Amino acid sequence: MEVILDTNALSAWLDGDPCFKPMLKDIEKLYLSPIVLGEYRFGIAASRYRVQYENVLTELLRDIEVLPLDDRVAKNYADIRRVLKKNGTPIPWHDIWIAAQARNFSLPVLSNDKHFDSVPLLRRIGW
């Protein structure tokens, strides 16, 4: 299975969360969004373990593909945001971008954020 990681999945993985570890056994390939990278880098910028986290992230990025943001993703973003607004189920804008990339590349999102469940044509895998 291939998945795109949400920020909480990336954090759980890099923090060694024991509940997250079993999720990795069925995953063949991981992808990241530049949105997730931005959120994660923002979080570690203020951490007292900043250097350690940045080193781990640098290693990780050698093995994980960062998916592009392009016009197809932007169209998915607009469609998802429109539908969520119409249904009265808005989610954070940064998660709409992650969902748009996931839909564009036909990937499930690995996340504990249940609001992804309100995005049509998107599968969320939680732990």
Short description:
The chain has 127 residues and is α/β, with parallel strands linked by helices.
Task: Please compute the radius of gyration using only Cα atoms.
Answer: 14 Å
Q: Main β-sheet: number of strands, strand sense, barrel status?
A: 5 strands, parallel
CATH class descriptor? Alpha Beta
Helix content: 40-55%
What is the residue-averaged pLDDT?
A: 95
Alpha-carbon distance between the termini?
15 Å
**How large a portion of the residues is in β-strands, by DSSP E?**
5-15%
Number of extended strands: 5
Under the CATH scheme, which architecture would be assigned? 3-Layer(aba) Sandwich
The helix-strand sequence is EHEHHEHHEE
Task: Describe the global form.
Answer: globular
Helix count from the secondary structure assignment: 5
Secondary-structure class: alpha/beta
Protein traits:
127 residues; alpha/beta; Rossmann fold; 5-stranded parallel sheet; 5 strands; globular
Task: Give the SSE map.
Layout: E1 2-5, H1 7-14, E2 29-32, H2 34-45, H3 50-60, E3 65-66, H4 71-87, H5 93-104, E4 109-110, E5 124-125
Parallel strand pairs: 1-2, 1-4, 2-3, 4-5
